[in-house]
């Protein structure tokens, strides 16, 4: 892997780790309903800035747009469920266990997109699943 890619991935990991940790602290303090209110209110402003920056010349509905919209729906559903789970259980367990979500992406990519993975990648996935099970005990 190129060093720039590694550095960028580490930055994402740090941001996501801070996001989960800070949300847990805030939600424990103000409650889940207020935490969600402020999260999505502020998120709307960030989203509006992104929309203003990336507004296409014309709006179109096609297969690609459909998949992006579907991804948004399932992403929001997973995030909302994650927030509620985080309220009842330890952040260290919830975040670590749910961080295994790329396994779904890998499996779907293998089955539907016919992507190939190496033996070390497959072993890594199996070890990650074992880690998830051990974390949840």
Can you offer a commentary on this structure?
- The protein has 2 domains: 3-89, no CATH class; 100-137, no CATH class.
- It has 137 residues and is mainly alpha-helical.
- It has helices at residues 3-30, 32-54, 63-88, 91-98, 102-111, 119-135.
- The longest helix has 28 residues, at 3-30.
- Helix content is 82%, strand content 0%.
Which terms would index this structure?
mainly alpha, globular, 137 residues, 2 domains
What topology emerges from the helices and strands here?
Elements: H1 3-30, H2 32-54, H3 63-88, H4 91-98, H5 102-111, H6 119-135
Question: What can be said about this structure in brief?
Answer:
The protein is mostly helical. The protein has helices at residues 3-30, 32-54, 63-88, 91-98, 102-111, 119-135.
Q: In percent, how much strand structure appears in the residues?
A: under 5%
The number of distinct structural domains comes to 2
What is the helix/strand order? HHHHHH
Q: Any idea what the radius of gyration is?
A: 18 Å
Unreliable residue stretches: none
Mean pLDDT equals 90
Give the overall shape, derived from the CA principal axes. globular
- Percentage of helical residues? over 70%
Largest sheet: none
Structural class: mainly alpha
């Amino acid at each position: 892997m190129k060093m720039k890619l590694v550095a960028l991935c580490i930055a994402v990991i740090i941001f996501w780790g801070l996001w989960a940790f800070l949300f847990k602290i805030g939600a424990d303090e103000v409650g889940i309903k207020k935490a969600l209110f402020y999260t999505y209110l502020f998120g709307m402003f960030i989203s509006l800035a992104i929309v203003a920056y990336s507004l296409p010349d014309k709006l179109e509905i096609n297969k690609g747009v459909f998949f992006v919209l579907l991804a948004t729906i399932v992403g929001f559903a997973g995030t909302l469920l994650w927030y509620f789970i985080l309220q009842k259980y330890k952040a260290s367990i919830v975040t670590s266990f749910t961080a295994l979500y790329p396994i779904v992406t890998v499996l779907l990519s293998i089955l539907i997109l016919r992507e190939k993975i190496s033996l070390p990648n497959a072993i890594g996935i199996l070890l990650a699943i074992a880690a998830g099970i051990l974390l949840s005990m």
